[in-house]
Design goal:
This protein has helices spanning 28-36, 53-57, 72-83, 100-108, 137-145, 151-156, 165-171; strands at 2-6, 22-23, 26-27, 42-47, 62-64, 87-92, 116-121, 124-125, 129-133, 160-163. With 188 residues, the chain is an alpha/beta fold. It has one domain (2-180): Spore Coat Polysaccharide Biosynthesis Protein SpsA, Chain A (Alpha-Beta Complex). The strands form two sheets. Strands 1, 4, 5, 6, 7, 8, 9 and 10 form an eight-stranded mixed beta sheet that branches. Strands 2-3 form a two-stranded antiparallel sheet. Helix 3 crosses helix 5 (137-145).
């Protein structure tokens, strides 16, 4: 399986790019790459990176978000277009506490139907640490064309399989894998 790490956010709440923000002494994007790398065939980074900072500092291919300004939807679209993959493990770059057991669960989940395999954590479907099938790309394209960029709305329209929170908590009791860093105070 190929992993697509989405690093294209504007980071408005943080005030600057989160990819190289250090969490416990390691840039967040490196923490995510290190968590995912042993479990996948390839990793691609999807980013709004006009200066090429990511390209110079990451050992994985970086693809510039083809659409931009559409959040995770355009990142997902770009990832499928760039890789040609039938399935993608999608991970946000601001989730530095991902446990390998969660990655393994997602990529080895048996015979699930639908466009997406989404874990449930904190009572919510987690769309930025999930597996998507290429069949989801039509729904992505529809949302982009209608300028509907809300990722929650996109998820609602998917034919999806959910992994129950109880199953997730067997591997990650505190749901740390799903903690994303959006504000400076989240670093504490």
């Amino acid at each position: 399986m190929i992993a697509a790490i989405l690093a294209g956010g504007k980071s408005r709440r943080m005030g600057h790019d989160k990819a190289f923000l250090e969490f416990e002494g390691v840039p967040m994007i490196h923490r995510v790459i290190n968590a995912v790398n042993p479990h996948v065939k390839n990793i691609v980074i999807i980013a709004n990176d006009p200066q090429g900072k990511l390209s110079k500092n990451i050992g994985s291919p970086v693809h510039e978000d083809k659409i931009g300004g559409m959040g995770p939807l355009s990142g997902l679209y770009t990832a499928f277009e760039a890789t040609g993959a039938l399935e993608l493990l999608v991970v946000a770059c601001d989730m530095p506490l991902i446990l390998p057991e969660i990655i393994e669960l997602l990529i080895s989940y048996p015979d699930w139907p639908g466009d997406a395999l989404l874990p449930v954590a904190g009572g919510r479907e987690q769309g930025l640490l999930a597996v998507y099938r290429r069949s989801a790309i039509e729904k992505v394209r529809d949302k982009i064309e209608s300028q509907s960029i809300q990722f929650d709305e996109f998820r609602k329209g998917l034919n999806k399989t959910l992994i129950a929170e109880e199953a997730i908590k067997l591997l990650d009791p505190d749901l740390r894998s799903f903690k994303n860093i959006n504000r400076p105070e989240d670093l504490r």
